[in-house]
Design a protein that fits this description.
single chain, alpha+beta, five-stranded antiparallel beta sheet, two-stranded antiparallel sheet, 5 helices, about 30% strand
């Protein structure tokens, strides 16, 4: 028994309707919507660069490479697995930016953890942080404070093993 209705061999130019056609069309439409939704969330890289140059640092809308292309290589960069506190405004505060034993004001009881990428730009006065490559935190700090943070990272890295220094999959 054939899966298609109509005689494909008898009428080669006739419209042949397959039983699985609607299901296939729905699956293709869902896949297209999923891809479109994923692409819609992040502006084009040139727009990201322009926003960064204008100090419009919108969370979840910028990539690390856009910062590097707009501002150059950061003076300090650091990666480590870290917990983050979820805030009401959608930002995620890294544990390292909070005093031990405290929680940030406005914390709404959500916690996430993952690979954190810290980029410190003392010449611009910004610390920007990405959680699993998503821009989740920004803090305006003095150049002296950013140099202090960067030097602390360098000191800590001296005591890390090679396994700790390698990026995780």
């Amino acid at each position: 028994m054939s899966t298609c209705e109509g005689g494909g061999a008898e009428e080669p130019e006739a419209f042949v309707r397959c039983r699985y056609g609607p299901l296939t069309a729905v699956l293709i439409a869902m896949a297209w919507l999923g891809v479109s939704a994923g692409c819609m969330g992040m502006p084009p890289i040139t727009e990201q660069e322009r926003n960064i140059r204008n100090n419009e640092l919108t969370l979840r809308k910028l990539e690390p490479r856009a910062f590097v292309r707009a501002w150059g290589m950061p003076t300090y960069q650091h990666m480590e697995f870290m917990p983050f506190f979820g805030m009401k405004d959608g930002s995620m505060v890294p544990r390292s930016r909070i005093a031990v034993g405290t929680s940030p004001p406005g914390w709404e009881a959500t916690v996430d953890a993952g690979e954190a990428l810290f980029l410190a730009y003392p010449d611009r006065g910004w610390l920007v942080v990405f959680l699993d490559e998503v821009f989740v935190y920004r803090e305006e700090l003095s150049a002296d404070k950013l140099h202090e943070i960067g030097q602390t990272w360098a000191h800590e890295d001296k005591f890390r093993t090679k396994i700790e220094l390698e990026p995780h999959p």
